[in-house]
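Quick note —
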Amino acid sequence: MVVYILNTLITPIDFDKVSEAIVKFRKISIEEAKSILSNGFVSAIGHEGTANLLSRILEIQIPSNRITVFMKSGDKGVHFFLKQRLPEGVVLDEQQLSKLQFWLVLSEVE
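Predicted structure written out below.
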């Protein structure tokens, strides 16, 4: 099992290897996210401002790491999800992101 941290609510599944997947989602607190990530994780946070904000909020180092992820059965994801869509081409820094509302969401691939 791998735990990922992602800056999207999308749960990437490799459909070349499986024909279907069941994914459960639920909103989680900052404290629960800290607990889930405390045993290790892979960062797939592709934007430095988001990585910096999450590092501060979660009180752990979240590296910026623009990688492709395919989650498998048993994997979990902690997703940072902005509750609003940004205009096309806009990239926000940590200070700008900190002013926006967001959810932390846990996904679990069955």
